[in-house]
Amino acid sequence: MLKIKQWLGVAGFALAAMAVSVPAQADELADILKRGELRVAVQTSGPLMSFMDKTGKRTGLAVEVAKRMADDLGVKLVLQDYEWKGLIPALLSGKADMVAADMTPTPQRAAQVLFSLPMFYADTVAVVPKDSPYKSYGELDKEGVTVGALGASTYAEVGKKMLPKATLKEFSGGSAPVGQALSSGRLDAGIMSLSTANQFLADFGTLRVLDGVMVREPLAFAVGPNAVRLKFWLDNWQTLKTADNSLPELVKYWYSTEWKKEH
Question: Own/partner pairs for 55-63, CB < 8 Å, 24+ apart?
């Protein structure tokens, strides 16, 4: 009996020592509430997700979703502008609490950060000038064809994978430069989401979408690798706002061209 008591005493001491030596898990959600601010990294220029409207106010689908999240948390929204390549580094460095963008939760990205449930989905398509001889995206896969896409994006990865014979040119500064290059004849085609393509068709009037959806991707928001509670809060928010139809209605508005009348 004495030996059993001694063993239990040693075991209890060891467990207590372990509890003291293991640091407490960081709680980013508690920090946000205490700070009174939700720091969100968004794209510097990425219509329709994040852009400056006619009045100089930052808006877009991802921005408006982030605003609603901040309101529901009862905190101030602090937007941080980054080029696409700087979004995840801003999160990993602790400068931002969340990335709000049309980001695909690829295995490579998910190895670095935590992703929410999909906030929306995007069909990836190829866009060409109206007078282009091509009818479907598969016809672009040949030498001598130059295709453009946002750099470090899944659109660029789709181009590399599905059009390996074509020459891929990657752009920075959002999808706008791709549309401009297309409209000026510097590209044979551009790879982008269907929603972005619809905006370009309305803006330039000289483009068309090729037949066929190249990929359908889920798009999610990202939080730090240890922000488990914040990730679950985002998932809960997405579920509730999908159930009451407010999130689908917001997506429908921004995926159309109606927002151009107001912004």
Answer: 59/263, 60/254, 61/102, 61/120, 61/250, 61/251, 61/254, 61/255, 62/100, 62/101, 62/102, 62/119, 62/221, 63/100
Question: Band of the pLDDT at 105, cuts 50, 70, 90?
Answer: very high
User: What tokens does 145 get?
Assistant: 């064809």
The first and second tokens of residue 27, run together, are: 């709680």
Cis peptide before 114 (omega within 30 of 0): no
Task: Dump pLDDT digits (tens) for 10-39.
Answer: 445 444 444 444 344 579 999 999 999 999
Look up residue 173 and give its two tokens. 């500064």
Q: Are 45 and 51 in contact (CB under 8 A)?
A: yes
Query: Contact at 8 Å (CB) between 141 and 135?
Result: no
CA distance 219 to 216: 10
For 40-51, write each residue's pLDDT tens digit: 999 987 688 999
The pTM of this model reads 0.77
Residue 9: predicted pLDDT: 52
Say whether 26 sits in a helix, a strand or coil. Answer: coil
CB atoms < 10 A from the CB of 260, how many? 14
On the CB side of 174, CA atoms within 13 Å amount to 21
Strands 37-43 and 98-103: parallel
* DSSP bridge partners of 80: 41
- H helix or E strand, kind and range, residue 137: none
| 205's tokens | 């009037």
What type of residue sits at position 175? Answer: S
Question: What's the CA gap between 28 and 17, in Å, rounded?
Answer: 26
Q: Which helix (H) or strand (E) holds 17?
A: helix 2-21
